[in-house]
Amino acid sequence: MKYLTEFRDGELAQKLAAEIRAAVTRPWAIMEVCGGQTHAIIRHGLDQLLPPELELVHGPGCPVCVTPVAAIDRALAVAAAPGVIFCSFGDMLRVPGTREDLFAVKGRGADVRVVYSPLDAVRLAKGNPARQVVFFAIGFETTAPANALAVHQAAQLGLANFSVLVSHVLVPPAMEAILSSPANRVRAFLAAGHVCSVMGYHQYPPLAERYRVPIVVTGFEPLDLLDGIRRAVRQLEAGTHAVENAYPRVVTFDGNRAAQAMLAEVFEVCDRDWRGIGTIPNSGWRLRGGYRRFDAEERFAVGDIRSAESPHCRSGEVLRGTLKPNQCPAFGTTCTPRTPLGATMVSGEGACAAYFNYGRLTAVGTERATCPT
After folding, report:
1. What is the pLDDT of residues 60-115, one digit of tens each?
2. One MF term from GO for this chain (predicted)?
3. Which fold does the domain 12-356 belong to in CATH?
4. 47-50 long-range contacts, Cβ below 8 Å, gap at least 24?
5. What is the residue extent of each domain of the chain?
């Protein structure tokens, strides 16, 4: 299959891994930003091909994982309201809020539906004019354009019974928050290729220059990831900090201008809370004034709900790259995919789910050399 099997060639993977092992002379920590990259690394055992001095740190790029517990609690309140059809992607139904999840609300009779596109929710609103239809709009720059298009289409159709509960976040401010933290160990990034397919990578050179970190735009297949790691290692060893595109079959410097225009039409940048991380300035999107009438948070007056994280969940440390999933005392014991304490264990892109599903049940990462801070 073109663009798939050729990027899973085992012989080429071993060759790239050998080049990486030959290039590394001292400890380095490289963060793969996206949870999809984390799953590919763990699933294919790529980290086990690397030298012990090289540590892969898992980043905050899982849209379900970083949706704050307060947003989940608002979703629960809206979903439970009379006459509402609440629409979400499937992963969100099992993410715990302060006391329960959307499955529990659905079990008590709420009309919670899994959709595969926000436009499905628009169609539901058009076909059910007597009911309020709400779509849970979460995610990064990859999902936001489709959600913006849904709001734009609802406006064109004149739908008064459609709204979105917005919890969108942006990748570059999160990378800067990690780099500016006193606890930061990350020396280079594998930037998320799908985010860059929308936004391009013109936003990254100032970040690379300010923090003197290599940033390599990277895809999701084994050879994509090994090539991204090799490029990052070469820069680290050479003392350079440029932005490289190792995913040119998908990503261009400027990105998808049409998608960016739709985002700019519907959304504006705002401060945003991240689950387990806290508030990051200018790291999210909210509806612009002209589209504010589609804001479910205002329509259902659920902005003042008080929320609390589980005191036993350490997913925030996992998302910041300061803790490996299998270093958490709750991992695989009180926290499993069936009984998750946090979203990182239940999401299809969560780092904890990757470690659990692919059998990384012991903390082998602690045996690796530690990158100097």
Report:
1. 989 999 999 999 999 999 999 999 999 999 989 989 999 999 999 999 999 999 99
2. 4 iron, 4 sulfur cluster binding
3. Rossmann fold (3.40.50)
4. 49/13, 49/14, 49/17, 49/20, 49/226, 50/17, 50/20, 50/21, 50/24, 50/229
5. 12-356
